[in-house]
What we know:
The complex is a heterodimer. Chain A is mostly beta strands. Chain A is built from no helices and 11 strands. By secondary structure, chain B is mainly beta. In chain B, 0% of the residues lie in helices and 56% in strands. Chain B has no helices and 11 strands. Chain B has strands at 4-7, 10-13, 19-25, 31-37, 43-50, 53-57, 64-70, 73-78, 87-94, 103-105, 109-113. Chain B is globular.
Amino acid sequence: GENVEQHPSTLSVQEGDSAVIKCTYSDSASNYFPWYKQELGKGPQLIIDIRSNVGEKKDQRIAVTLNKTAKHFSLHITETQPEDSAVYFCAAIKNNNDMRFGAGTRLTVKP
Amino acid sequence: DTAVSQTPKYLVTQMGNDKSIKCEQNLGHDTMYWYKQDSKKFLKIMFSYNNKELIINETVPNRFSPKSPDKAHLNLHINSLELGDSAVYFCASSQDARLQSEQYFGPGTRLTVT
């Protein structure tokens, strides 16, 4: 089955700096890769996603890149703000019926 | 207006008991899900229902039984609770059954089994 690894498990940055979180997946048949943000005491919320036919997608301060050959994808947050502090999860989906999450990255943005 | 709501928010119970968690969505979505998030924050899909029909059933003990009385509700009943069932359970919904459809999560139910 699919296996998704996410690094780092914790990340601390200064406000205004960039943050990068990386995920690797094992099954080349995976074709959809969402990223979720989970704030304390809340459920995960989709922030950006990418499909396997696209290499990069950007939405304001966040971007996701996908390298299908290497089977890894990354979340990039620029100009970080304290409200970006949360746990971020990547996921890989195959065949619309198999969804695996990474273990999560706790991002702390220091003011 | 809460899109996906769950009750209760917290549930503390003893081993061996039977308990239910309820979920409701007012988004008009066809598909609903249950996820389990353990103490290490690891998130795993358990079930999904599309129009009251079970479509995803991951390897979950049969002590867990989802029930969907209508497409706006998906309840989770757990029999003979065990210590390892302690976790946060999230309900979610999406427009359709494709996992690529954006999922909206509820606030979670923190279950503690003592």
